[in-house]
Design goal:
The protein has a single domain, classed as Aldolase class I (TIM Barrel, Alpha-Beta Barrel). It has 11 helices and 7 strands. It has a 7-stranded parallel sheet with strand order 1-7-6-5-4-3-2. Helix 2 packs parallel to helix 3, helix 4 runs parallel beside helix 5 (149-155) and helix 10 packs across helix 11 (279-291). By secondary structure, it is α/β, with parallel strands linked by helices.
Length: 295
């Protein structure tokens, strides 16, 4: 288990890109600065909300560079590394570590199915390529080759693989993982789970796109959970859940980018061929944000 302690609220950052493909550096930096001031515990560029699958390597690198520069050591930056090949994933991870990131969120993309041994080899190679902590990302709804419980168990024995972010929406699976890996690995939830419930069963926080829109409320929820104030935590969780439901109902990046536009951040639309948030979706997000005082 690594000595670095990742915990709390890590917003999955959006990737603001203009019409010519350039990263909107000022917009991304302003968002990061505001999130840090709101008390988040870390920043995660190039997660699912960050549209990593739609970005070039040049764009990915630039986004991570901006986030690291803006964070300036105040909070850890855990950068997403995603590829279909081990060689490319290793190259990405090494470059992000060289840029100064504090951790790697390791994501496996695949076109053809990959065996459990192949999945294990991919994540092991990423971990062995860097000295920073690695967070495993598992999302069976989107990944063709997901992390099985036996593979997670094997990977938890690699020294710098100390965390897992699960986006399955199956909280029972999370409890099975926690029971299996014990103290070797800490678990983050996603917006698909009910974060307060994950904290109750032993989670250490959540990595999720909606935290970009409601950072102060997310931090408050985390603090209530840490204090064991479960009645107050669930009261706040109920009010926040409408936003989580909108996030699950609409395109991931479109929902968060649409909400940020409502809050005055010129992050733009999702990258084509993804569609922007529909008028009905915008109104749904608007109502959810207004209900928790985020507009």
């Amino acid at each position: 288990m690594t000595a670095v302690d990742f915990h709390g609220v890590f917003p999955y950052l959006v990737s603001p890109v203009d019409g010519s493909g350039e990263i909107r550096a000022e917009v991304l930096a302003r968002l990061c600065e505001d999130l840090i001031r709101a008390g988040v515990h870390g920043l995660t560029p190039l997660g699912s909300t960050g549209e990593f699958a739609y970005l070039s390597w040049t764009q990915r690198r630039r986004i991570v560079e901006i986030v690291i520069h803006t964070a300036a050591g105040r909070v850890p930056v855990v950068a997403g590394v995603a590829s279909t090949t081990i060689a490319d994933a290793v190259a990405q991870a090494r470059e992000f570590e060289r840029l100064g990131c504090n951790g790697i969120l390791a994501i496996l993309e695949s076109y053809f199915p990959v065996s459990d041994d192949g999945v294990f080899a991919y994540f092991r190679a990423v971990a062995e390529a860097v000295s920073v902590p690695v967070v495993l990302y598992t999302n069976p709804n989107f990944q063709r080759s997901d992390l099985s419980l036996p593979v997670i168990d094997r990977l938890s024995r690699i020294p710098n693989i100390g965390y897992l972010k699960d986006a399955s929406a199956n909280t029972g699976r999370l409890l099975s993982i926690i029971n299996r890996v014990g103290d070797r690995m800490k678990v983050f939830s996603a917006s698909a789970h009910i974060p307060a419930c994950v904290m109750l069963i032993g989670g250490v926080g959540w990595m999720a796109g909606p935290a970009c829109l409601v950072p102060r409320q997310s931090v408050e929820l985390y603090n209530l959970c840490r204090a064991g104030s479960w009645a107050a935590a669930m009261d706040l969780q109920r009010r926040l859940w409408a936003l989580n439901q909108a996030f699950a109902k609409h395109n991931l990046a479109a929902c968060i980018k649409g909400g940020l536009e409502l809050q005055g951040y010129a992050v733009g639309a999702p990258l084509p061929p993804q569609a922007p948030l529909s008028p009905d979706g915008i109104e749904e997000v608007r109502r959810a944000l207004a209900a928790v005082g985020a507009l």
